[in-house]
Amino acid sequence: MGTDEYYGFNEVGTFVWESIQEPRSLEAVCEDVTDEYEVEYDRCRADVEELVRDLADKGLARIDPE
């Protein structure tokens, strides 16, 4: 990264970060999150998509077209 920036996660963000260390679909990640935490799928999907896009914008994740 080389920017001297720090990116911190809350508990769910850490769970998502660990879930995306191997290529996975957004649906698979959200299924795991909704199984582990009390969150509705639609809310989870929006939040996970926002997080992954933010990580990709910072060069910390890559989004592959499905």
The secondary structure category is mainly alpha
Give the N-terminus to C-terminus distance in angstroms: 26 Å
Helix content: 55-70%
Residue runs with pLDDT of under 50 for 5 or more positions: none
Q: What is the 3D form?
A: globular
Largest sheet: none
Order of helices and strands: HHH
Number of helices: 3
Using the CA coordinates, give the radius of gyration: 12 Å
Strand content is under 5%
What is the number of strand segments? Answer: 0
Average pLDDT metric: 91
Molecular structure report:
The chain contains three helices and no strands. It has a domain at 25-66. α2 packs across α3. The protein is globular. It has helices at 11-19, 26-36, 41-57. The protein is mainly α and 66 residues long.
Topology of this protein?
Layout: H1 11-19, H2 26-36, H3 41-57
Helix pairs in contact: 2-3
Task: Produce a short descriptive summary.
This protein has 66 residues and is mostly helical. It has helices at 11-19, 26-36, 41-57.
Question: Which structural traits does this protein have?
Answer:
66 residues; mainly alpha; 3 helices; globular
